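Objective 1.3, modelling of assemblies. Example input:
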Amino acid sequence: MADIEELINKLAQDTAAVKPAPHPFMLSAKWMLAAAAYLVVSLMLTGTRPDLMSKLSDPWFIAEMAALVGIFFATSLSAALLSFPDMHQMRRAAFAPVVSFALFVLVILLAWQADSPPAPLPRHSFQCTSMISLFSVLPAIWIVMQMRKFASTHYQWAGSIALLFAFSTGAIWLRLNEVNDSITHVIEWHYLPMIAVGLGGMWLGKRALKW
Amino acid sequence: MTDNTDNFAALMKRSINGEQRAYAELLQETSRILRPFLAKRLSLTNEVDDLLQEILISIHKARHTYDGNRPYKPWVFAIAQFRLSDYLRAHYSDQLRQAVEISEVENNLPENVTETTLSYESISGEIQKLPQKQAMILQLMHQEGYTAKEVAEKMGMNESAVKVAAHRAYKILRNKLEK
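Predicted structure (C-alpha cells):
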C-alpha cells in the first residue's frame, strides 16, 4: 500500500498538462485524407487506366470500387477507434470493417457470376500483389507510426486493421491504374492476399503497437 | 469522493490541464476501485499490488487518450483488463516454460510410487562419481530442492542446459544401478 501511495505521489509530481488525443472521427478523417492525397499523387505519377471513363459506366466496376472504398473508410475508422484503450466507447463502430468486408465479398461474388463469358486472364499474376504491397508500404508505416502515439489495448486487431487500410489504398490505386477486366484475376491476386495481409497485421500489431 | 463518474471525469479533465492534486486524487480513487477488481482475479496480495502499480503507470502513459467527455470507468477498466490479461498470459506461459514434459522424466519416476527405495542419500556415492557439473545439478535439485530454473541461475547456465544435464545424469545413474 505504501508503494502505491509513493507511486501515486511520484506520478502526480511528474504530471504536466497534456494535449488530449483528437476524436477518432477526426483521426480517421486525417488518415483518410493523407491516404487519398497519396493515392491522387500516385495516380498522377503512374497515370490512370486509359479505359477509366468507359469503366465508370460499368455497374460491376462501380460496385467493386464502392465496396473497396467502403473498406477504406471502415478500416480507417476502426483503426482510429482501436487506437484508444476503450475504443472511445464505440465498440460497435470498431466492427465496421466486418460489415464492409461482407458487402465487398458479396459484390465480388456477384461480379464474378456476372462475368460471363469470362474476361481473358492477363499474362501477369503475382506482380499485382507485389505492386499493391509495395504501394501500401508507405501508408502502412505511416498509420502504424500514428497509432503508436495512442494506447491500443487490442494491438493485434489494430495492427491487422491498419494493414488492411493501407492495402485497400493500394488495391484502389491498382484498379484505377491497370487495364484489366478479369474478375478472376482480381480476386486471386488483388483481393485474396488481403487475408495474408490481415494475418501479417496481427503479427505486426503485436510487435509495433504493444505498450 | 463518491463513485460518481462525473467526478472522475472532472478530476481527469483537471489532471489533463496539469493539476497535480487533482491527478493524485484521481489515481487514489482509481486504485480504490481497481483493488477489489484485481483481488477477485488474483490470489496473492503482492500480485494485486504489483499489477495495480503497473496499471497506474499505464493510466499515466495513456492519459492523453481520455478527454473527459465520456465515462471514465470504461476507459480505466479497459486498461486494467488489458494489463491483467497481459499479466496472466505472462504468468501462465512462465509456468508452462517451467513445466517439465512427462516424457522427459517418466523413465526416472520410481515404478512403485508408494514404496520409494531410492533417495538422494542412498545413491549419493554414485552421484559423486558423475561429472562435477552433473553431480552439482542433482545435488541442488534433489538434496537442496531447487527448481531447474533456480539451478540455472545459480550455475550461470540456461534452464534447458540444466534439464539436459540432469537428464543425462539420470541415464548414467539408471544404467549403473541396473547393473
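Residues 59-82 of chain A form the longest helix (24 residues).
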